[in-house]
Amino acid sequence: MKPSNLRTKLLTEINLIPEEKLEEVYNFIHYFRVGVEASQSTREQIMQFAGCWDDMPNELFSDFSEEITTRRQQAFAGRRNNETSLS
């Protein structure tokens, strides 16, 4: 469906909503739109870092990767121990 047709259909439906329900519809649409805008800006912020390790020497990148793996293993090992002690 073309965006212009869809917009017309949406406006027609909105015009059929009872007056006392319009605030709820507005809040839904507003927060939906704000959420879409926020997710797009977050994606753009994340993508600024894409490829930022391209110019890192292989040895330094390898050390960095190993450190990340070690830290993740330590973090998850602590989490597993905490979960088993709760029961």
Summarize the structure.
Helices cover 77% and strands 0% of the residues.
Secondary-structure map with pairings?
Elements: H1 3-15, H2 22-47, H3 58-85
| Alpha-beta classification | mainly alpha
Arithmetic mean of pLDDT: 82
Low-confidence stretches: none
What general form does the structure show? elongated
Tally the helices: what do you get?
3
Helix content class: over 70%
**What order do the helices and strands follow?**
HHH
Report the end-to-end length measured between terminal Cα atoms: 54 Å
Described by strand count, sense and barrel closure, the largest sheet is: none
Number of domains: 2
Q: What share of residues are in beta strands?
A: under 5%
Number of strands: 0
| Radius of gyration using CA atoms only | 25 Å
Could you explain the architecture of this structure?
It is built from 3 helices and no strands. By secondary structure, the chain is mainly α. The chain folds into 2 domains: 50 residues; 35 residues.
